[in-house]
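Ops channel
N.P.: pipeline sanity check, posting one input/output pair.
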């Protein structure tokens, strides 16, 4: 018996009857041999971790654009926090941790530079909604590995694309990632806002802090514990009404005080201009696209390919390309 077969047998013996078992996966878009040392979901997590798009997350904005300081969250640190919260919940509920981790690691691969400002900029310039969850799926399906994609399992792909939006993931593991994403960003964005000096922890309304807790760790512990206790032994991932209401109120508070705060968003108009000017430039000069994007022009059309290229940039690279294209090179008279 191979290591993979042993792991699959352990899943059947240990995991909840509601867990998504690796041996029962709906499979991949392209059939490929199984490995002897890992389950299919472990392989998916590894493929995402070693992808170029995952590495770029370290230089993509979470909330604060170009913050001064090393301790603000990036898309990568956010992703790691989501993965950790999601695995904690999955383990407590005896669900598939490997599937949960893979979906969590891939959920934000399609985010643009400059956070949601970049998403809005592409929506405006393309005239059609740019949704980062859909772009994340496109990244793993079409853009990684020079157009071959990562060929992930159906369950991981659904967990990625359904982590936001109207569709609910079919697996409980995917539903955990959807909720863990919200738990993570609400709480770590409070931490970053306090660090930026635009919010004090004491300003969180008592009606919220009395329910969820008055510190970062207490809030997360309350939310995670509530999900576990409410969902254990049930074919659903849920929260008690009181905790869910408090979390939604905290989210609304964050939109009012942080996400729309001029300090946090003061540079967004500049960020949107960078994204839109780059998009327009490459539409007018498709020959300037990198070589690996050129073959896709005839297959998928210029707007789609240019969007893929610009959306995949990091914050720093987008600024670099903007300056290279639109800012005159410094010169001097000898």
């Amino acid at each position: 018996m191979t290591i993979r077969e042993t792991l699959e047998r352990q899943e059947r013996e240990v995991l909840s009857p509601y867990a998504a078992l690796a041996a029962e996966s709906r499979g991949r878009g392209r059939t490929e041999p199984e490995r002897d040392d890992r389950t299919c979901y472990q392989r998916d997590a590894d493929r995402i971790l070693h992808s170029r798009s995952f590495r770029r997350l370290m230089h993509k904005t979470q909330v604060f654009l170009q913050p001064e300081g090393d301790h603000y969250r990036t898309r990568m640190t956010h992703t790691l926090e989501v993965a950790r919260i999601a695995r904690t919940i999955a383990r407590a509920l005896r669900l598939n941790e490997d599937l949960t981790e893979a979906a969590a690691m891939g959920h934000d691969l399609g985010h643009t530079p400059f956070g949601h400002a970049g998403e809005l900029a592409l929506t405006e310039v393309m005239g059609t909604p740019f949704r980062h969850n859909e772009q994340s799926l496109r990244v793993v399906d079409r853009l990684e590995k020079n157009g071959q994609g990562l060929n992930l399992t159906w369950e991981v792909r659904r967990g990625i694309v359904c982590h936001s939006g109207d569709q609910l993931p079919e697996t409980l593991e995917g539903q955990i990632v959807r909720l863990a994403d919200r738990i993570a960003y609400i709480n770590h964005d409070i931490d970053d806002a306090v660090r930026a000096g635009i919010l004090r922890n004491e300003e969180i309304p008592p009606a919220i802090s009395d329910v969820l807790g008055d510190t970062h760790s207490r809030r997360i512990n309350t939310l995670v514990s509530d999900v576990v206790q409410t969902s254990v032994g049930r074919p659903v991932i849920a929260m008690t009404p009181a905790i869910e209401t408090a979390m939604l109120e905290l989210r609304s508070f964050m939109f009012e005080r942080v996400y729309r705060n001029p300090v946090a968003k003061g540079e967004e108009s500049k960020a949107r201009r960078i994204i839109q000017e780059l998009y327009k430039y490459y539409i007018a000069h498709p020959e300037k696209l990198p070589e690996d994007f050129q073959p896709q022009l005839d297959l998928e059309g210029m707007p789609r390919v240019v969007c893929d290229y610009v959306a995949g940039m990091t914050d720093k690279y987008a600024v670099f390309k903007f300056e290279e294209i639109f800012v005159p090179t410094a010169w001097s008279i000898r």
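N.P.: looks fine end to end. The chain has two domains: 3-265, 268-326.
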